[in-house]
Every structure is written in structure tokens, then in C-alpha cells.
Amino acid sequence: AIRMTQSPSSLSATTGDRVTITCRASQGIGSYLAWYQQKPGRAPKLLIYGTSTLQSGVPSRFSGSGSGADFTLTISCLQSEDFATYYCQQYYSYPWTFGQGTKVEIK
Amino acid sequence: QVQLQESGPGLVKPSEALSLTCTVSGDSMSKYYWNWIRQPPGKGLEGIGYIYHSGTTNYNPSLESRVTISVDTSKNQFSLKLTSVTAADTAVYYCARSGAAGGRFDYWGQGTLVTVSS
User: Fold this and answer.
1) Which of A10, A15, A69, B5 is the least crowded, having the fewest Cβ atoms under 10 Å away?
2) Under an 8 A CB cutoff, do A44 and B45 touch?
3) Among residues 30-69 of chain A, which lie with CB inside 8 Å of chain B?
4) What digits encode the pLDDT tens for the residues B39-75?
């Protein structure tokens, strides 16, 4: 199975900050990379797929980039509702696998 | 609006089987893949397997020997059976939809906590 490694595991930030989360795959996965946001007690929500395509309804302050094995999720101007845990997921080969998550906390 | 809803027992005894059903509303089950994903308390996400509306399945090799996913398109439902459970199977179980274009999960159920305990 392809292993997905996110960094950092957690970070503290302030509203208005620019936040970057990285995700590295154990092998190349093309552009088959998605990002999810999860808040406590809730199901994950799809934010980005195909590395950089925003899911319908997701604010434009979220963006994704990368290719091959290295990917990035950027939140350009952190809002209060963005404090959550973020997961990357590869769907290049089955079993589709997730990163361990990055928790974005209030500083 | 597509909605998914998990149902099933919240407590299962060790060595027994866990059975859950996901009811889909707001869309046909055709053209999509229907998935089970779990999340142990305080931990990350793990895909369990999926089924296509035709009945084709694919399971995570780490669970394959214990998992069966089935579908009943007449009821707009698909189900999970996980046998020989242990405490390590305690988790929130989610059902989710993924499209034919890839294994990204665009609609999720709210999740149901299943605890394995005697």
C-alpha cells in the first residue's frame, strides 16, 4: 500500500495567517490526490481533488498544488471556521490511503 | 442532495461479527462506488472497501479476510460485515460515495460508533 505522510502533525495559527500543509507519498501518484477537512464529531469534507481542483462550494482561500509524490494544501487567509484536522488521500492505487492528519489549532 | 445514513448495532462482542447498513437517498446508486471507511477514536482514517452498483467489490488487503460488502440497489442500500472483531475494530464507521473518475469521497454519512467489548 502507498504510504502518505503529512507534515506537520499539528500547527498553531492565528486568524488571517497563511497556512501550508505538506503531504508526501511513498511513490509517485500522479495527480490522484485529495484533501479533506474534518471537525470534531463530524465526517470529513472533501475540499480538493485531482491535486488542485476545488470541490464545489469550497472557498477559494483553499488551494492545492504538487505532482508526483509531493503535495501541498494552502489556506491563504485562515478563518475561524478553518480550525480543524486536514487529511490528504491518494487514489492512484487501491487500497486508497490517507495521511495521518494535520491538526490546525488556534494560537 | 445526496445523503447517506449508517445504521446498525453500536456494541459488538469480541469474536462476533459487526454488521452495518448504509442507506442512500437523493440519487441512484448507479455509476458510483460505495465505500466503507473507519476511524478509531482519536486516530486517522482507514478505507475498508468498496462496492460498485453491479456488485463488484474491492477490499483493503489488511482486512480482506474478514470483510464482506454487499449491495441492494432496490433498497438503495449497501452493507458491511466484518467478522471476528476485536477491540482494535472499535471505531467510527463511515459510508461514503466515490465517483467512477476516482476514489475521492464526495459524500459521507455522519458516521456511527461501533464499540467492541464484552
Assistant:
1) A10
2) yes
3) 32, 34, 36, 42-46, 49-50, 55
4) 999 999 999 999 998 899 999 999 999 999 999 999 9
